[in-house]
Amino acid sequence: MRTGIDPARRVVHAVMRRIRAGSVELDERFEGGRRRRFGSPSAPLRARVEVRDPRVYRRIARSKSIALGQCYGDGLWEADDLVALLRIAARDIGRADPLRRRLAPLLLPFQRLATLPMLNTRSGARSNIAAHYDLGNEMFELFLDREAMMYSCARYETGTETLEEAQHARLERVCDALELRPTDHLLEIGTGWGGMAVHAASTRGCRVTTTTISREQREYAEARVIAAGLEDRVSVIGADYRDLGGTYDKLVSLEMIEAVGWEWFDAYFHHCSRLLGPAGLFFLQAIVIADAAYEHEKRTRSFANQLIFPGGCLPSVESIQRSIASETDLRTVALEDISRSYVLTLRAWRERFEAAAGRLEELGYDERFRRIWSFYLAISEAGFAEARIRDVQMLFAKPRWSGRPRLAALASDRADPAAAAGASA
After folding, report:
1. Residue 330: which of 267, 274, 288 has the closest Cα?
2. How far apart are CA 312 and CA 308, in angstroms?
3. In this structure, are residues 61 and 6 in contact, taking their beta carbons and an 8 Å threshold?
4. Domain coordinates of the chain in residue numbers?
5. pLDDT per residue over 351-364, tens digit each?
6. What's the order of all strands across the beta sheet hosting 207-211?
7. Theoretical Cys-Cys bridge with 155: which of 87, 102, 133, 170, CB 3.0 to 4.6 Å?
8. How far, rounded to the nearest angstrom, does the alpha carbon of residue 174 sit from its chain's CA centroid?
9. How many whole angstroms separate alpha carbon 274 and alpha carbon 262?
10. Does pLDDT of 273 surpass 80?
11. If one looks up domain 122-420 in CATH, what number appears?
């Protein structure tokens, strides 16, 4: 009955013996289990892991991060500091990156077959979006900021701001970068819960057309627009970005491109460019991976694109710039890395989510759902803390835009708000 468990256990232990970036105490709470320590006892990053079922090893050996998250959701293992453990893992993964990149072309045919059900055609995109964003507005209300309900990186300057203050600062930054005026018509691709559209219309007086293919988000945003008395300035529609027409002065998309799918990146940017007037501006906020890892990652099954964001794929800055250059007449006029702020954003979301465990149960979400989402928020925080993934804001301009490029003015984080707030090293 236990065929394969012991060999898999040895494989996982062998991998853990290579830990150099932290200290992991492993306590196996099953018959024949042992207690062991891996890594450096003096390392600042430490975690204690309790394995409650030996089948964990076999599952992890087969599916890595997918199984790690699934097993955590099933309660088969526990960690006293989940973020620290995942940060240690993220640091040590880096040593395997050159091999992964060499293997990527060889694995492509098999990995593509595995991802075919998640392709982001019009119907596939609606299904993928519904699987995540239609989980229930009340669930998202438990951990997002209470004012704008923004589900993307906030902007922390000092690290001492509340989540609400940091999200407000980010929205102001977006509006300023777009130079929004009352005469502008702004198109937003990816409505979320309406925070960006309502903020732009109410503070800058512009018209906003915003689109989402999530049914629950659209209903929530429409109600929010009515409550704010902005029906004459904000239109919420349910169109796929590929079906949008018309011409707009400005365009904004906040962490929506991750749901586009890598096969559609060229088409996405081509269409965005067509929707803008000759002097238009396009503000893009995107979660990205390293350029060198893109070819491997875009074809990889992961915890995130299997259990949380079906069909999701992170672009790289280089892949974005390549699409912009080949498919549009846009030019890049600003680029800023705000990844440090995402560590704090995710920490705030995770703490709020975990504090709302009782309410989550009242809403009908089971323990496995709670644990899967806790793992998702923790692995995301760890990824940003270790720069395995990053968050960038990019501003693109059409040929007749007469402003001045601001690459120097919008350089990467000058300070580290996460460090200021006490993030562990």
Report:
1. 274
2. 9
3. no
4. 5-95, 122-420
5. 999 999 999 999 99
6. 234-237, 207-211, 185-189, 248-254, 276-289, 389-397, 331-337
7. 170
8. 18
9. 20
10. yes
11. 3.40.50.150
193-237 tens-digit pLDDT: 999 999 999 999 999 999 999 999 999 999 999 999 999 999 999
- For the sheet containing 77-79, what is the strand order? 35-39, 23-28, 46-51, 77-79
- Is domain 5-95 annotated with CATH 2.30.30? no
Q: Would strands 331-337 and 389-397 be described as parallel, antiparallel, or unpaired?
A: antiparallel
Taking the alpha carbons of 41, 47, 48, 53 in that order, is the dihedral positive or negative? negative
Q: CA-to-CA distance for 331 and 405, rounded, in angstroms?
A: 10
DSSP string for 56-110: HHHHHHHHTHHHHHHHHHTTSEEESSHHHHHHHHHHHHGGGHHHHHHHHHHHHHH
**CA 272, 114, 288: angle at the middle one, nearest 5?**
40
Query: Which amino acid does the sequence have at 206?
Result: C
Q: Specify whether the CB–CB gap between 85 and 271 falls below 8 A.
A: no
Question: What is the pLDDT, as a whole number, of residue 317?
Answer: 97
Strand residue runs (E) in 162-275: 185-189, 207-211, 234-237, 248-254
Question: How many whole angstroms separate alpha carbon 56 and alpha carbon 204?
Answer: 53
pLDDT tens digits along 326-376: 999 999 999 999 999 999 999 999 999 999 999 999 999 999 999 999 999
Beta-bridge partners for 47: 24
Pair of tokens at residue 321: 């710039």
Of 297, 290, 343, nearest to 317 by C-alpha is 290
CA distance 198 to 202: 6
What's at 89, amino acid-wise?
Answer: A
Those residues with Cβ within 8 angstroms of residue 315's Cβ, 6 or more apart along the chain or in another chain? 257, 258, 262, 265, 286, 288, 289, 294
**Axis-axis angle for helices 317-327, 265-275 (nearest 10):** 50
